[in-house]
Predict the structure.
Amino acid sequence: MALATEDTPHAAVAAPSSTQTQAIAALRRAAPALGWDDWSGERAFAGTAAALDALDLAAAVLRRRVRAAVGLSRAEMGELARAAVDLEEARRALRDELLDERHTLLAGVQEALGRLRGIDSVMALLDRATMEVCRSCGFERAVLFRVADEQLFPVSAHFAGDERGADELLEVLGALPSDLDHLRLEAELVRRRMPLLVDDARHDDRVHPVIAEHFAATSYVAAPILPEGRVIGILHADRRGQGREVDAFDRDALAAFAEGFGYALQAATLAGRLRAQRDHVRGMLGSTEQLIDELLDAEIEVSRVDQEDPSRAAHHAATLLDAAPSRLEQLLTPREIDVMRLLAAGETNSGVAARLVITEGTVKSHVKHILRKLRASNRAEAVSRYLRITALDGAE
């Protein structure tokens, strides 16, 4: 009997570790006792887990031979016993190595999430996610999709050492139908809200044929991003080019990363909203301060005129009370009129901020309010309407 193997489609196979080399030697010595006479023991295992699987298979075959042993000589029984001891020692060493690998991987996931939590920009987080998942989990390639309104949109991709390939794949994915009804595996993941392991992507009818063709991986893992129980994104990852397929632990590691990334994304989104609210409040405070200053200036003017000529003061007060506001004053606050006047003169946000001694964020807040009040879709349209209203006010 020979140990069945399958030719790998990958271009490179990682060199075996010392424990894997020990496993190869143990299997080579045990081959005659196992009946694997045509297996040379030179197989390079594609990862520790695969080597452990081969030893588990060998141990099971050896146990069956021992149970079925009848009339064996003492030398033959000794050979079986030595083979059993060798296999068990190799299995123990591989299990320890596998545990170390998984501990290192999970520690890497935590370190990557720590780096992501320091980013408060949503766009920067989305761009960085795929690189970090490859770096922390050891994947060769990763793709991030956004899920919104039952639609799937590719956002970012990272291929180790192949930036052009990542960009090309994003173009291909962007041309796919975005409706989840056409993407059965992704729709299943969104529905079940559980990570998935696709071990035969080329023959799995849930995988979209274009994805199977251009992703060019025989196996990959996918995990949902769901910070509040609702799937807002999906991560795909594989080990194409590393000489081995993904396994259940890869799936679980990606799921752990996706969960932590979801919370980091949620925190960045909330931080962005808080910054917008802060700028809005600052804008309101700036407008209020300007209004108070204008009211105080008017009061001071009335008092000065009153001291000089009581009749003039009375006339000035009556003028202030009776003067009807212009159309522009009915629509915009005095501060917004100041901003609009400078925008019409061609000033930028920074220029307006410098002229009015306010922050650029406050200028943006004023502009947003002006666009809404003038029912303009952009600044050019707002300037046009401002000039028309000003012309009408001046004609009266």
About this structure: The domain at 119-269 is CATH 3.30.450.40 (Beta-Lactamase). The radius of gyration is 35 Å.
